[in-house]
Specification:
Radius of gyration: 28 Å
CATH class of the largest domain: Alpha Beta
Strand content: 25-35%
Largest sheet: 6 strands, mixed
Helix content: 10-25%
CATH topology of the largest domain: L-arginine/glycine Amidinotransferase, Chain A
Structural class: alpha/beta
Shape: elongated
Number of helices: 13
Length: about 550
């Protein structure tokens, strides 16, 4: 990893915490061969000249250990579904961040998780957000150093593994080591498993819906020159269970970052907002956007258009908005006619009816090649509500020999990040009763469990989590069959032949395929099965 020095002295700060001394983007400092990121400096989203000199032609490549993809069933988390919170970083543009936090924690009914470099900065951030109108109970500070405000590009990308939230972490395409290391720390603090995908990119160059579709620009291929397009797409398929389409990228003369979130937002399972260029019709960026419109309309999607402009080296966009539950934080610009602000509001309200649009002035962000979407990351709501969830990552089902010992892996999740223990349990009667095999385990782990020597056709394994409030919930395996020398006629596998077994045989009468009540094993449920059960009745 590249070294970094965080400097907090000799830097003039305003009362709001914004860096002084430059009205636009600020370069980091190259000092003794190391990059220095002045505290609060408005480091732009794009690769600065100083950073390019520091790299000196070297490519940024995934330096950490790549982990296997999630083992359990995976679903990508869209931005338009229920959210628990929005992640932010207190690194410049602090007055804008405070406004965002106020809207997110009130109208948006969500938390804000604000990365701060120190406890002192955390107090400043918290007080600034509360002064702007944020709900004090929903402002959560995370004391961990970051280099820049652009958390969309380096922050945690959440997906669901089963009913548990997990993080897919890529390598940030900038030499900003504190930013690049943030996700592993964040995941450990909130009990979420972190998977390292072997791709280098910025998270703003990626959009997805909740049903397996995603998009990026061809920039991703330049950032990963050792991979083919099919390999890049396959990595996202493996780790996030999505099918990805790569669009042409804007010229850097229009957008320094070439990121897709600067001109596109997926706002529904089959709904999308794409930029239009009313004063620059026919330009390359207009052609790229129009081609995307055709592509999604051919998929049957509904497409909405918002205006966009490129002037004076600045890309003014409205698609770079933040959607959080009932609120939409929409950019507006002093440099642009409010006619276009109003057009954008109308388009967004039509695309996502029932949500409140809150405009926020974003000229200064746009000067640094990003807007509000670029400085925020989404954390989806917990799938289980107040009840903890688990994911049995190891498939367990089918025929298992008596006394077999299985190595299983599991993870857990909770709405208050408060799983205190996990039990592994087994049922011989399809979940009516449970026997504890392992108790008081860690919230995630790998464990070897031995199943009981109890013949059953209705076995189930459960990983049960318990939170600090005593709520429980967990993932249940598929059907398990344990074969053995059990009593003929013990259909339900409870160790006795009784009236429940007779009733089960009668309920499956004349069954001739996959019949658990086929006592004699002749392929059908008939009178001989009743006679065998009656012969052993009471045993």
């Amino acid at each position: 990893m590249f070294a970094s020095i965080i400097v907090a002295t000799a830097i003039s700060m305003s009362a709001s915490g914004d860096f002084q001394g430059a009205s636009g983007p600020v370069e980091p400092i190259l000092e003794d061969g190391q990059l220095v990121f002045p505290e609060g400096a408005r480091i732009p989203k794009y690769m600065t000249e100083t950073e390019s000199r520091f790299l000196d032609g070297r490519l940024i490549t995934p330096p950490r250990a790549v982990t296997p993809p999630p083992a359990g069933p995976v679903r990508g988390a869209s931005e338009y579904e229920d959210m628990q919170g929005i992640l932010l970083a207190w690194e410049g543009f602090t007055s804008t961040i405070a406004q965002m936090a106020a809207a997110i924690t009130t109208t948006g009914n969500a938390d804000v998780f604000i990365a701060c470099d120190s406890n002192s900065e955390a107090n400043t951030a918290r007080n600034s957000c509360i002064s702007a109108g944020a709900d004090p109970d929903r402002v959560i500070t995370v004391v961990r150093s970051t280099n820049t405000v652009w958390i969309r590009d380096y922050g945690p990308r959440y997906v669901f593994e089963g009913d548990c939230r997990v993080i897919i972490d890529h390598t940030y395409n900038r030499p900003r080591p504190n930013d690049n290391a943030y996700n592993s720390y964040f995941g450990s603090q909130f009990g979420h498993a972190v998977y390292e995908i072997p791709l280098t990119h910025g998270g703003g160059n990626y959009h997805l819906n909740g049903v397996g579709r995603s998009a990026a620009t061809q920039l991703i291929l330049n950032e990963n020159p050792g991979l083919s397009e099919s390999q890049v797409v396959d990595y996202w398929r493996q780790y996030q269970n999505v099918e990805t389409y790569l669009h042409d990228a804007f010229p850097t003369s229009v957008d320094y970052t070439q990121h897709i979130d600067m001109w596109m937002l997926m706002c529904g399972d089959e709904r999308i907002i794409i930029s239009d260029w009313p004063t620059q019709s026919g330009t390359i960026q207009d052609q790229i956007c129009d081609a995307a419109v055709v592509y999604y309309e051919n998929l049957g999607w509904e497409v909405f258009r918002t205006p966009a402009f490129a002037q004076g080296g600045t890309h003014y966009t409205y698609t770079n908005m933040v959607v959080c539950n009932d609120v939409i934080l929409l950019p507006e610009y002093n440099d642009i006619s409010n006619t276009y602000d109003n057009q954008a509001i109308a388009a967004v309200e039509a695309a996502m009816p029932g949500r409140q649009v809150v405009p926020i002035i974003c000229d200064s962000l746009a000067y640094s090649a990003g807007v509000m979407h670029c400085i925020s990351m989404h954390m989806p709501a917990h799938a289980g509500g107040i009840y903890p969830t688990t994911c049995l990552q190891t498939p367990v089902q089918g025929v298992i020999d008596p006394d077999d010992c299985l190595q299983i892996s599991y993870i857990s999740d909770d709405d208050e990040f408060d799983v205190v223990s996990v039990d592994i349990e087994f049922s011989v009667d399809d979940g009516d009763n449970w026997e504890t095999l392992e108790a008081n385990l860690d919230p995630q782990g790998v464990r070897t469990v031995c199943l009981p020597d109890t013949p059953t056709n209705q076995g189930r394994l459960r990983v049960l989590a318990r939170d600090g409030d005593g709520n429980t919930g967990g993932d249940i395996s598929g059907p398990i069959i344990i074969e053995g020398d059990g009593i003929q006629g013990d259909v339900d596998g409870d160790g006795d032949v009784d009236v429940e077994d007779i009733l089960e045989i009668l309920s499956q009468w004349l069954c001739d395929q996959d019949c658990s009540a086929d006592v004699d094993g002749n392929g059908a449920v008939d009178v001989t099965d009743i006679l065998l059960a009656l012969a052993n009745y009471g045993s």
